[in-house]
Amino acid sequence: MNRRGHLLLGCLVVWLWVTGNVVATDPLPSWNDTLPKQAVVAFVQNVTQQGKAGFVPVSDRIAVFDNDGTLWAEQPMYFQAMFVLDRIRLIAPEHPQWQTEEPFASVLKGDMKAAFAGGEHALLQMLMATHAGTTTEEFEQMVLEWTQQARHPKTGKLLTDMVYQPMLELLQYLRDNLFKVYIVSGGGIEFMRPWTERVYGIPPEQVIGSSIKTRFEIRDGNPVIVRLPELNFIDDKAGKPAAIQHHIGRRPLLAVGNSDGDLQMMQWTAAGSGPRFCLYLHHTDAQREWAYDRNSHVGRLDKGLTEAVAKGWTVVSMKDDWRTVWPEASAEPADTVKPSLVGKWLVEDIRGAGVLDRLQTTLQIEADGAVSGNTGVNQYCGQAIIDKNQIKFGPLVSTRRAGPEAAMKQESQYTKALEETASHRLDSNGQLHLLDNEGKIVLKFSRMND
Amino acid sequence: MNRRGHLLLGCLVVWLWVTGNVVATDPLPSWNDTLPKQAVVAFVQNVTQQGKAGFVPVSDRIAVFDNDGTLWAEQPMYFQAMFVLDRIRLIAPEHPQWQTEEPFASVLKGDMKAAFAGGEHALLQMLMATHAGTTTEEFEQMVLEWTQQARHPKTGKLLTDMVYQPMLELLQYLRDNLFKVYIVSGGGIEFMRPWTERVYGIPPEQVIGSSIKTRFEIRDGNPVIVRLPELNFIDDKAGKPAAIQHHIGRRPLLAVGNSDGDLQMMQWTAAGSGPRFCLYLHHTDAQREWAYDRNSHVGRLDKGLTEAVAKGWTVVSMKDDWRTVWPEASAEPADTVKPSLVGKWLVEDIRGAGVLDRLQTTLQIEADGAVSGNTGVNQYCGQAIIDKNQIKFGPLVSTRRAGPEAAMKQESQYTKALEETASHRLDSNGQLHLLDNEGKIVLKFSRMND
Fold first, then answer.
1. How far apart are CA B56 and CA B62, in angstroms?
2. φ and ψ at B149, to 5 degrees?
3. Where do the DSSP E strands lie in A260-321?
């Protein structure tokens, strides 16, 4: 529909609304018709309908949502921690000292317990190694590329599909009632912004989170903002109301969270004058999601649950109060890959033109479709979608080192060949052939010993 | 108009817009039809009209405006500095040590040169003494009360009337074209928020500024955010693009400023892809406002002017490019007060019931209508509007100490009497009588020796 069509439709909608000729549809179809849904609908009606006791002008309709465990899942670990680990593995070739330096050595060996044994210091080291040192635009690009292929270790879904359908509906319901909806998360502010508008409909200027310091500078005549390896603000617990005041300057009308990290934000919200609404999501659904609360190492809900009950805040039991948990579109099963494909492969030929002898170009395929390797110059990784003989490489992320001209040329031919790949076959010698959509062989690999 | 009426009107406007049956009116009537106006209108049309080469979707239409010297005046000193000085004078009775402690002693003696001689350290001391130590809500209230009566030392206008009419029109023109307009100022973020929506139509969540640190805590069961005497962020020069990224997370399309403090914000804006617009306001109008640039101690425009010319940014000469400078409503002349009223007065009687002997309640009236005094318990100040025999006390701000019950009772009777005052007269003995709107005497004063 063109712009004019949109406007005319918008006009029609306004007219229908004003004249009341609209059949009411359920704004929260994924919620069971239990107390939490009734409470939230009653609250929204109370503050938005002129003449109601609690009517609140549009400019004061501020809603704040936690992210991890509230809008998307947070098990078995915060998704941002997966970004940190993926990124360490990706850029490890640029940091040979990491092979022996903790916590990186443990990450590279896959020993997460040892990696996190260093506590807060180790965490900060990993955070800064993966979040600082780039410009804001480079970091945005990294996050964007990562979210396009990062999948959940248990469900195999894209992480950005591990969002709660009932919460997507609640966000939309509030926006339809002219609320301005913010994320207020302990997660990194610039880690969220690249994808929150696409996934939640929440624009970057309505995302509040933890941050590191930055510095504006002119590089070769080009202004950039550089991300520095120094913490700026932790947007958790007592930090949340302070950040809300700093970014918004108004007290929220409605706060939604799932852990003790959200308690102060709720206290601040609840203490405002007039009607206020606090909602805790309680993870009670081991079948469809996870069940955890007072003793969880991630997203602990202990003091918050006690206070919510004492103060009569709304507590949503995922198991009992949500009809569905996940958006329908993401119900696709995770890919599983033929065992014969899994392993490490060495490129022998690119489009019949051979390869440079001195350059090892590799491709490693995991059982879940994760791919990684080295072009001979740069490390790369990503996700392949594999279905029988079909194989399609999703967006690949790569380090950005420059090499000799011939090597760069081969790298470019190799990545182009991967992009053009449509199917695969294993020949009688055990070689892996990748073919384009015309059936021509674009890449030949031999299996490497592990 | 009720809500339904608003919606129907909105619908009509949309329809008229779509069908094009609207007579165009000049969106910038206070601008002369010179190059700057033509440039800004051409830019806005280019980025907002579908089909134009530079069309930009609504979500990316971000505009940033400096405040001091860009939206309101900044001479003879930043208005926030006037707040600092007023506040020091107001709360001085609570800090007897300030009589001898610099920089406060000099402020109280009216020696501003000596007060600022201590440089940055003295400035910080004054800033923290007046900006920290309260809750965010208390501070908001202080600022609100101050802006209701703070007047400009030269023009006598309310400071919030010392705003530029052409800029008010530009803000509205941008909003009409679906820009989201932000303030990005070196001024205090919480110093601006209480009044920017009323004065500029810019809501608190679109105000970015310098800040001190805060702390959330529960006081007697009530959650508060406390303002701490520690700098958090200076939103000036290279701080501005960093703050824009932190608060908005998008690069602006349009930046407006008036000093070297805005240069980096402009560089950051100009370096974005596609069409961008930078506008410098050059203070060239000694007659209607002030003329200053490369050598000014406030709002210096030196490097910025050079770069603007070199890069072809738009430079507005206030003298040449603005038809009018100030909003019409504020064209009222400053009040001048009869010399016979000016001076310090002692309360002798409140509504015929006498006064407590041991309590001195005083009223000082300045030539510009400023009033101050002591209730016997608390220091207060504010502004009186005086016209011939009419006298009306504007909102008075006051310290909040508690005294003995009888003293508090008298204080309350005194302030109530001031509120009810409608006129004054001087009797034959030189006593000052204040009368309510029924002509009854509510207060009698005798003149005190200076």
1. 10
2. -135, -10
3. 277-284, 291-292, 314-317
Cβ-based contacts under 8 A for chains A and B: 108
What residues make up the domain containing A423? 343-447
Residue B277 lies in a domain: yes
Q: Is any Cβ of chain A less than 8 angstroms from the Cβ of B193?
A: yes
Say yes or no: A241 contacts chain B, CB-CB below 8 A.
Answer: yes
Q: pLDDT band at A30, cuts 50/70/90?
A: very high
Report the alpha-carbon distance of residue B308 to residue B273 in Å, rounded.
18
Residue, of B427 and B33, whose pLDDT is higher:
B33
| A437 burial via Cβ count (<10 Å: 0-12, 13-18, 19+) | exposed
Cα end-to-end span (Å), chain B: 55
Question: d(Cα B423, Cα B14) in Å, to the nearest integer?
Answer: 51
Residue B275 contacts A where some CB pair is shorter than 8 Å: no
- Domain with residue B282: its CATH number is 3.40.50.1000
CB atoms within 10 A of CB B56: 17
Q: With contacts defined as CB-CB under 8 Å, which chain B residues touch A222?
A: 271
Residue of A49, A245, A264 to mutate, testing the B interface (most B Cβ within 10 Å of its Cβ): A245
Q: Is the pLDDT of residue B257 over 80?
A: yes
**Hey, are the CB atoms on A223 and B15 less than 8 Å from each other?**
no
Contact flag A204-B241 (C-beta cutoff 8 Å): no
Same domain, A84 and A168: yes
Residue A376 sits in a domain whose CATH number is 2.40.128.270
Q: Minimum mean pLDDT among A222-226, A401-405, B194-198, B291-295: which range? A: A401-405
The answer as to whether B193 is a domain residue is: yes
Distance of alpha carbon B391 from alpha carbon B42, whole angstroms:
50
Backbone angles phi, psi at A204, to 5 degrees: -55, -35
B217 and B317 share one domain? yes
Q: What is the mean pLDDT of residues B133-156?
A: 95
The answer to whether A7 contacts chain B (CB < 8 Å) is: yes
Domain boundary among A299, A332, A365: A332
Q: Are the C-beta atoms of residues A212 and A232 closer than 8 Å to each other?
A: yes
The two structure tokens encoding residue B9: 């009107």
Do both B231 and B112 map to the same domain? yes
- DSSP per residue, B312-351: T-EEEEHHHHBS--S-GGGGPPPP---TTT-EEEEEEEET
- Chain centre distance of CA B161: 8
Beta-bridge partner residues of A62: A180
Q: Are the C-beta atoms of residues A223 and A136 closer than 8 Å to each other?
A: no
Average pLDDT estimate for A128-154: 95
Q: How far is A330 from A158, CA to CA, in rounded Å?
A: 8
How many angstroms separate the CA of residue A279 from the nearest CA in chain B? 18
Q: How far is B384 from chain A (nearest CA, A)?
A: 31
Token pair of A318 as six digits: 């995922």
> Chain A contact for B235, CB < 8 A?
no
Query: What local confidence, expressed as pLDDT, does residue B9 receive?
Result: 45
Contact B263, B305 (CB under 8 A): no
Residues constituting chain A: 450
Q: Cβ separation of A225 and B241 shorter than 8 Å?
A: yes
Q: Which of A173, A141, A159, A177 is nearest to A67 (CA)?
A: A159
Whole-number pLDDT of residue A24: 59
Cβ pair A162, A155 in contact under 8 A: yes
Q: In chain B, pLDDT over 70 holds for what percent of residues?
A: 92
Q: Which residues pair with B212 in a beta bridge?
A: B231
CB distance B381 to B76 below 8 Å: no
Mutate to test the interface with B, among A12, A15, A18, A180 (most CBs of B within 10 A): A18
- Residue-averaged pLDDT of chain B: 89
Residue A205 and residue B247: Cβ atoms within 8 Å?
yes
Number of DSSP helices (H) and strands (E) in chain A, helices first: 14, 17
Residue B342: predicted pLDDT: 85
Q: Averaged over A91-98, what is the pLDDT?
A: 95
